[in-house]
Design goal:
The chain is an all-alpha fold. The protein is built from 14 helices and no strands. Helix 3 runs antiparallel to helix 7, helix 8 packs antiparallel against helix 14 and helix 11 packs antiparallel against helix 13.
Amino acid sequence: MSDPKPGDYHSKLPKLTMKEPYSKSKFLSKQARGAIDLVRPFTLAAPIIVSMSIMVASLLFYSRLDPENNPLTIPENWWVTVGQAALTIALVNAASNALNQATDVKADRISKSYRPIPSGAIKAESAQSLAYILYLFALLRAVTINAWFGTFIFLIMVFTVTYSLPPRMKKYLFINQVWIAIPRGLIGILAAWSVFGSKYMFSEPTAWVIGGIATVYLIGGMAAKDITDSEADKATGTHTLINTLGVKKAAMMCLPFMFFPMFPFVFLFIHAGFIEPYLWPLSLFAFMSIFVFYLMIRSEESKTLENVQAWSMMYVQYIFFALSFAVLTIFQELQAIVAPV
């Protein structure tokens, strides 16, 4: 699908995608629409859904285990805390997206000229300023929830800022995939879990194991985002598995990272006692990993979203993996709560 011309950024009928942005209206100016596109709303669905579901799961998990919480009571305004913490995680991800676009202008002019900065809808300096404001607001909000949550949000900031700015880990082969997978996998899940489980962060391994599984999966899956940017990355000095090995070899290298954390590692962790047996259905996501691998080989670009279908499906799998973990945990804890003593 050909990129819209920069001058056409707001000349079409209203659309819901970045490739075909909203036309100028009395509700949204060109700059306002550009700011929305900077934070890439589709990619914020994963951290919001994942974090909220994990927070609720951890609330029930620790409410039942806490010996001081007898009889069992749930905080009256727990849903307010969940909403505020999820918003904070979404804001730090939005800041990362804005900063990444502000520092990737040269590459975007080659492969994604429809984006707000190369199209002229917003200036790179404004995008970078927006990113810093969002980072600051997210950090200030995070420390009011609890110290561990604030610490994890700060660590996410460190990883995402150094991904885009010097030392710019994005340009280093394979390290770039690890660098973005850690905050979106392990640290993101630990942040969500810590909202209600900060008291047991180092005494109960469940969140660490699930976060580790997610991180290894994302190390492989994140290669999908580099397919459409292959030539642009090469031209601007960014080395990825895609532009170094080619799509098929890179996909073959990434498949073990996507498959083995689901199967057999889920069963190995259960056998070792690190996670509970009721989480065995998470192993079924190994089949979805094979489908993501297949889509990577096909490298078919999405007609609505701004990357290949494998990238979209990778996010969908991550969302459902976290949702499944949360739902299984919630049902298990509810069953334990209502079971007779």
